[in-house]
Write a structure and sequence with these properties.
By secondary structure, the chain is an alpha/beta fold. It has 14 helices and five strands. The chain is elongated.
């Protein structure tokens, strides 16, 4: 008999500790327990945080087309009834508010530094640099904690936010570099200055490969992980060249917090990668 499951009830079928692995797509609940790709309730090849016990309607739209046909071969066990919880809504609002506060940090820093103490070009140059760094940080956080964020936001929303924030950061990085060239490099340490064009080149490669993710299969993931090195290089660049970072204790503290958060995010991603490899090994031994 077909079951009617709420999302909370569906979450019990997570494929762990011998429990069945169910996923929901477009209101239909499938049993993927028998699939080798879903060992221990996690899809081995998916980078979108696909786990059993959840509604994957958004994830499957972003996945390769053959995934839907593969899923259609799985047994249908019921249908899902969506219920929005107040806690989820509050968490969504809180995370969006946090992002708005982070985007406002460069404006606060420039306000403390003194908007009127510089020419319009210098002000625009510094604002572009600070916002680029801020958006890069937000984008890395979205990428690092995507498996958790997709429990709060729809996967499509998380994915689109990740894409657009990266593109806006890229545009601001180009604007910053253009203003630097117009202003001239006099007075800046040359070694630190040239980190900027190198960062922009790496960011270009990351964005292009991410946009062609389906064509590059798994290769793009490793290229995308260069974001962590890019963040470290951008932080070094800002520390040696950025007037705000060198003179404002407030901004240095904020950037140190960002650095700590990125380290935590990297650790979390490494943990997920190692766990996935361990589960794949357990599944292979069980099949053998």
């Amino acid at each position: 008999m077909a079951q009617k499951l709420t999302l909370r009830e569906l979450s019990r079928f997570d494929g762990k500790e011998g429990r069945p692995a169910y996923v929901a797509v477009d209101g239909v609940v499938y049993d993927v327990s028998a699939s080798r790709r879903w060992a221990n309730g996690e899809h081995r090849l998916c980078d979108l945080g696909a786990r059993s016990g959840r509604d994957l309607s958004d994830e499957i739209k972003l996945a390769p087309s053959f995934m839907r046909s593969n899923l259609a071969q799985m047994p249908v066990v019921g249908e899902v009834v969506t219920v929005t919880r107040r806690w989820d809504r509050a968490l969504q609002v809180g995370l969006v508010a946090l992002a708005v506060v982070l985007v406002a940090v460069p404006f606060i820093a420039m306000g403390l530094f003194g908007f009127r103490s510089d020419t319009a070009r210098f002000t625009a140059l510094r604002m572009a640099a600070l916002e680029t760094f801020t958006l890069l940080f937000i984008d890395i956080m979205i990428g690092a904690f995507r498996p958790l964020l997709t429990k709060v936001f729809r996967a499509k929303v998380t994915h689109r936010a990740h894409q657009w924030i990266g593109l806006v950061a890229f545009a601001l990085a180009i604007a910053h570099g253009t203003l630097i060239l117009l202003q001239g490099l006099k007075g800046y340490p040359r070694a630190a200055v040239w980190v900027g064009p190198a960062n922009l080149t790496v960011l270009t490669v990351i964005i292009v490969t991410a946009l062609d993710r389906r064509g590059l299969t798994s290769v793009w993931r490793w290229i995308h992980r260069l974001n962590y090195l890019l963040f470290a290089a951008a932080l070094t660049h800002a520390s040696y060249v950025g007037a705000n970072v060198r003179t404002q204790e407030f901004l240095r503290i904020v950037f140190y917090v960002y650095m700590a958060a990125v380290v935590v995010g990297l650790g979390y991603r490494i943990y997920l990668l190692l766990r996935r490899e361990r589960m794949a090994g357990v599944g292979a031994r069980a099949r053998g």
